Amino acid sequence: MADETNLQGDAAAPVEQTGGEQREGRGRGRGRGGERGERGERGGRGRRDDRRGRNNNDEDQGEELIEKLVHINRVSKTVKGGKRFGFAALVVVGDGKGRVGFGHGKAREVPEAITKATASAKKKMVRVPLKEGRTLHHDGKGRFGAGKVNVRSAPAGTGIIAGGPMRAVFESLGVHDVVTKSVGTSNPYNMIRATFDALQDQTSPKSVAQRRGKKVADLLGRGGASQVEAEAAAEAIAE
């Protein structure tokens, strides 16, 4: 009986060792593969994150942008299991020196929607010429859908006479004196689009003089002002 037990034990031992080696081998293979995968993923992600971080730092160091949240709307989508709720954000971005843009984004959470809207607004920024760096050069009208807006230049000390979404646009643009009026819809999306339609029609005496091949003083002197006054006004004009 003792011999049979030893024989059985000896016969069973190599099987366990072989199985152990196979298990160890498989474990090593998985471990190596897992390490390679982890290294590759970590390396790739790390590089991408570094690149994104560099771009963001360059943008942040180059200019400081003014971000204003105009409107947040909760939206829902009906699916088989019920309703899925999300959020839509409308953001206006500007540098306070004559550049402004707007964008909107949708996501399941509010911060993600704001981030998407901000990124979209930065891509669609436009430049608007300003008079003395504080107001518009001339009056204008804008329209989008059922929304109509009127914008007028104003003397120093007037302030921003605008409400709702239009105020956010002019504050981000860097305008300090302006008078506006919105007629028609109160939808913030259409109001902002109508405001941008009016701002894109703005022109400065400098751009008109370049287009016509003349001097700014010649254009300003046609209103009855003297040559000295026209030259002084031309020097005071800033984009």
UniProtKB/TrEMBL annotation:
InterPro entries hit by this protein: Ribosomal_Su5_D2-typ_SF, Ribosomal_uS5, Ribosomal_uS5_bac-type, Ribosomal_uS5_C, Ribosomal_uS5_N, Ribosomal_uS5_N_CS, Ribsml_uS5_D2-typ_fold_subgr
Keyword field contains rRNA-binding: yes
Swiss-Prot/TrEMBL keywords: Ribonucleoprotein, Ribosomal protein, RNA-binding, rRNA-binding
Pfam families with a match to the protein in the record: Ribosomal_S5 (PF00333), Ribosomal_S5_C (PF03719)
GO cellular component, one term: ribosome
Region (Disordered), start-end ranges: 1-60
Entry's free-text remark on domains: The N-terminal domain interacts with the head of the 30S subunit; the C-terminal domain interacts with the body and contacts protein S4. The interaction surface between S4 and S5 is involved in control of translational fidelity.
NCBIfam families: rpsE_bact
Name of the protein described by the UniProt record: Small ribosomal subunit protein uS5
